Amino acid sequence: MVKVGVLALQGDFLEHIQILREIEGVEPVAVKRIDDLKGVDALVIPGGESTTIGLLLSSRGLDTKVVELAEKGLPIMGTCAGAILLAAKVADRVVGETNQFTLKLMNIEVVRNIFGRQRDSFISTVRVENIGLVKGAFIRAPGIKSAWPPARVTGYINHPSIGEIGVAAEQNNMLALTFHPEITGEKGVYKYFLSFIKR
């Protein structure tokens, strides 16, 4: 049985736990404290409010532990706000530099709310390298503006107002998605991410 931690501080962690429960051989575990990370084979950082999740991560000392585990090769997937928290550089479409807390684990530059506010949310099909076509929900979603080695952008969409923008990236044991695969029930995304465990 593979044990997958889901950071359960804020956001839509319950949806991730539910979809992971539906995958044979996977036991999802809600992670709220450092002790909850014991024995996990992978970790999901969900969507939500990236600043709130970041504050809770650091106040509970989880940030240091997650970075330590990532550097030891623990597979980590960040979706939407989770992608922001993995990024080395973050800006906001409107206010520019945010100076917000991130784990700085992936060499990607992310722009928050790049498609607009809540009312500008949409569902789109994306071709993601190594996964194929994925239907993703973009809810106040960020975009990946750039990536530098060893990170690389693995999925793009063409948006009518901003043009081509990255929405998926990989770096070694980490996967960042700016959309929500748990809302559209994209189990293929999770199965690909779980393949990182065997790397």
Q: Which key phrases capture this entry?
A:
199 residues, alpha/beta, 4-stranded mixed beta sheet, 5 helices, 22% helix, globular
Record the SSE blueprint.
Elements lengths: L1 E6 L5 H9 L4 E6 L10 E4 L4 H10 L2 H10 L4 E4 L1 H6 E6 L3 E2 L8 E7 L9 E7 L3 E7 L4 E5 L4 E8 L3 E9 L2 E4 L9 H8 L5
Parallel strand pairs: 1-2, 1-3, 3-4, 4-13, 5-7
Antiparallel strand pairs: 5-6, 7-10, 8-9, 11-12, 12-13
Could you walk me through the main structural features you see in this protein, from its secondary elements to its overall organization?
By secondary structure, the chain is α/β, with parallel strands linked by helices. It has a single domain (2-198), classed as Rossmann fold, CATH 3.40.50. It has five helices and 13 strands. It has helices spanning 13-21, 50-59, 62-71, 81-86, 187-194, and strands spanning 2-7, 26-31, 42-45, 76-79, 87-92, 96-97, 106-112, 122-128, 132-138, 143-147, 152-159, 163-171, 174-177. A seven-stranded mixed β-sheet has the order 2-1-3-4-13-12-11. The chain has a four-stranded mixed β-sheet with strand order 6-5-7-10. The longest helix has 10 residues, at 50-59. The two termini are 17 Å apart. The model has no long low-confidence stretch (mean pLDDT 94).
* Helix-strand pattern: EHEEHHEHEEEEEEEEEH
Q: How big is the Rg?
A: 15 Å
Instruction: Give the count of structural domains.
Output: 1
| Strand order in the largest sheet | 2-1-3-4-13-12-11
Q: Look at the structure and name the CATH superfamily.
A: Class I glutamine amidotransferase (GATase) domain
Q: What would you call the structural class?
A: alpha/beta
Bin the helical content. Answer: 10-25%
Tell me, briefly, the overall form: globular
Overall pLDDT level = 94
**CATH class category label:** Alpha Beta
Count of distinct strands: 13
CATH architecture: 3-Layer(aba) Sandwich
**CATH third-tier fold name:** Rossmann fold
How far the N terminus sits from the C terminus, by CA atoms, comes to 17 Å
